[in-house]
Amino acid sequence: MSGGVDSAVAAARAVEAGHDVVGVHLALSRMPGTLRTGSRGCCTIEDSMDAQRAANIIGIPYYVWDFSERFKLDVVDDFIAEYAAGRTPNPCMRCNEKIKFAALLEKAIDLGFDAVCTGHYATIVTDDVGNRELHRASAWAKDQSYVLGVLTAEQIAHSMFPLGATPSKAEVRAEAAARGFSVANKPDSHDICFIPDGDTRGWLAERVGAEKGEILDRNGSVVGSHEGAAAFTVGQRRGLNLGVPDPDGRPRFVLEVRPKTNEVVVGPKEALAIAEIAGSRFTWAGAAPEHPEVAFDCDVQIRAHADPVPAVAVVQAHAETGEPELMVRPGTPLDGVAPGQTAVVYVGTRVLGQCTIDRTVSAVPTPVS
Q1: Same domain as 170, residue 23
Q2: Which among 96, 119, 203, 238 is least surrounded, fewest beta carbons within 10 Å?
Q3: Which of 43, 92, 117, 193 is flagged as catalytic?
Q4: What pTM was computed for the model?
């Protein structure tokens, strides 16, 4: 129970469905004293109290479990390391993968519980032979299956999402109000929970460090300077200190971040178009394809609120390392994809699997100077 409206209603529905429910709030910070500001952040003391008030109304036991050390190691430190390596991580994916459906689920199973129930908007469907599959929520506008794409078959077998068939968030808020929950109109949280002021650039500079370096064009010519490569991400336009304008006068965007040489590469917007993505860190959300080494049709989604794009996927050996990787070729180029992002693969409404993107191939070749 995060302290939000979705998890409160999910807990109430689970009780009414006949389950023996215990409310658990996750303490993810050793310094939770700062209260939420508007809709920024989550998992504060204020949120814990909101969750407890909802549990009291429902009439279920309520506990706060301290996962702050695990969260720091698996989510915060990973976030810092990924940016230091020039990648763009998704901490919400890591939190679901390592905390909510790993550390939390492991403890729950050890204590004799059958499942972790959350307020995510997604559904679980059992196929004809008994395999549990993760699917999109009925309301695509609120669908959160993307951030659950990291779940494995074992984790899906022990997960419940009571809100998956709900037509809209407005209906959930109305139900919360009818139940007397004080969080009925509480704003949704956004931004990175451990950076509640939203200043990701400043936060990273304190932890990764900032050293002046060069900004290059696609041919390697110096066109500007920067105060620290880790502060940049692929697709970024603002904040570029370019001393040499583009010959065509067009704006330029970050195409690549090179942490080893402390360089940032920029170019035209069309160069952000990506024709191929691949990652060796891939998992299947339920039963794997029978022959993943044979190319298959799918849809790919690279951000939580992005539209899915028709694609072809296949598991193949990396040309240099020989390590298996999930390679995806979209039917139309993807825009501004960065290594470190998560690509979630769908077949219809089903989440088939995901990979953390290791490499991309541009749809626009680098011009020869």
Answers
A1: yes
A2: 238
A3: 193
A4: 0.90
